[in-house]
Amino acid sequence: MYKNQSITVIIPCLNEEQGIEQILRAMPVFVDEVIVVDNASTDGTSEVAARLGAKVIREDVRGYGRSYKRGFREAIGDLIVTLDGDHSYPVDALSYLIEAFLHFDVDFLNASRFPVRDARSMSFINLIGNLVLSLAMSILFFRWVRDSQSGMWVFRRAILEHMKLESDGMSFSEEIKIEALRDSRIRFGEISIMYTSRLGETKLHLWRDGFANLAFLVKKRFWR
Ligand SMILES: Nc1nc2c(ncn2[C@@H]2O[C@H](COP(=O)(O)OP(=O)(O)OP(=O)(O)O)[C@@H](O)[C@H]2O)c(=O)[nH]1
Ligand SMILES: [Mg+2]
Fold it and tell me: Is the CB of 67 under 6 A from ligand 1?
């Protein structure tokens, strides 16, 4: 519990045994529930996560969005916090993020990786891709969003009932923000966090996912 709010942390993992161990060891004690959604990892992700106290859910169909939707169905907390299983997002900043969420009086808070403080955390090409996709989202949806691709968010679980989440892949990250910011009942905010280099191998297919995410933005904007 954090200030009377129960907290669920959801972490999608595909072969992240190194990262998930570091994250779970640093998980703050006020977190009530940690859900790791594993899509048939071939390393020790599930075992490590279960040993360190997480609730491990196996989802048979692969995909970043798919695993989040599965995790949301299991979550019971008032607030849901998300992050990658690669230890690139600051698990030690959970109280900072939840404080900001409560102070800003929002329903969805996006953790922006910008400005980049650790140059090793993001390659130049990833940086450009993130900036282009964030600018595209800002223009298409008439709202300034600094980091449309961030994987760390805090939101009220109750707002999920207002959202129509369709993406099963990496574009899920931008879809949930779009669903939040274009619904007048959902107050959207953003705050900067410290982002660092990931542990383990990337699961991002840079060009394929980058263009797919751009196409997804356009589709979401013009095809209801
Ligand atoms: N369950 C599940 N998790 C996935 C899948 N694809 C990616 N992930 C996880 O989703 C998170 C985001 O993937 P990353 O590879 O970190 O993508 P990224 O953050 O854009 O790229 P990096 O900058 O290299 O970290 C990580 O925790 C992955 O393990 C999937 O198909 N299923
Ligand atoms: Mg990552």
Answer: yes
